């Protein structure tokens, strides 16, 4: 995946007069540091499915893994459109991020090996995976790995000043 420089816009409808657009580099740093994300996929009947998971930011994309029989994996077979969100539960402080894009399966074993190392670096030894047959293998069995390069992302600064930044790729 090739990281791109997005068009960055502050939405004045949802921003304090003192707010300015947040640079994409600041959003990337927050995506890399965030520990928990919420993934939204679409069920075959059109209903949304939301679940928390962990993810790694690498080479311009968020990466997550899931068992092949889990609801999110089955949803992605029919519809690859996803949204990943992360942030803070506070109303008046912090920064929330929403990343919209398409989930693409990662099967290249060299890339998977690098991602497996990134999982351990970020989340510790409990998240060590072997790479085999185009997937992660761990104590829980097989895990398919997906990459989501942002198509559009939103950042919500909470507190003083509050603001909404949109990044389009």
Polypeptide structure, described:
The protein is of the alpha+beta class. The protein has one domain (7-168): Electron Transport, Fmn-binding Protein, Chain A (Pnp Oxidase, Chain A, Roll). 20% of the residues lie in helices and 43% in strands. The protein has helices at residues 24-33, 71-78, 109-123; strands at residues 7-10, 37-42, 48-53, 56-58, 61-66, 81-86, 95-106, 130-132, 135-138, 141-157, 163-168. Strands 1, 2, 3, 4, 5, 6, 7, 8, 9, 10 and 11 form an eleven-stranded antiparallel β-sheet that branches. The protein is globular. The model has no long low-confidence stretch (mean pLDDT 96).
Average residue-wise pLDDT: 96
> What form results from the Cα inertia axes?
globular
Into which percentage range does the β-strand content fall? 35-45%
Q: Regarding CATH, which class?
A: Mainly Beta
Q: What CATH architecture label applies?
A: Roll
Number of strand elements: 11
The CATH topology corresponds to: Pnp Oxidase, Chain A
Please give the alpha-carbon distance between the first and last residues: 13 Å
Strand/helix succession: EHEEEEHEEHEEEE
Helix content: 10-25%
Structural class, by secondary structure, is alpha+beta
The CATH superfamily title: Electron Transport, Fmn-binding Protein, Chain A
Number of contiguous helices: 3
Low-pLDDT segments, ≥5 res:
none
Largest sheet: 11 strands, antiparallel
Domain Pyridoxamine 5'-phosphate oxidase N-terminal: 26-127
Organism: Streptomyces flavochromogenes
Keywords: Oxidoreductase
Protein name: Pyridoxamine 5'-phosphate oxidase family protein
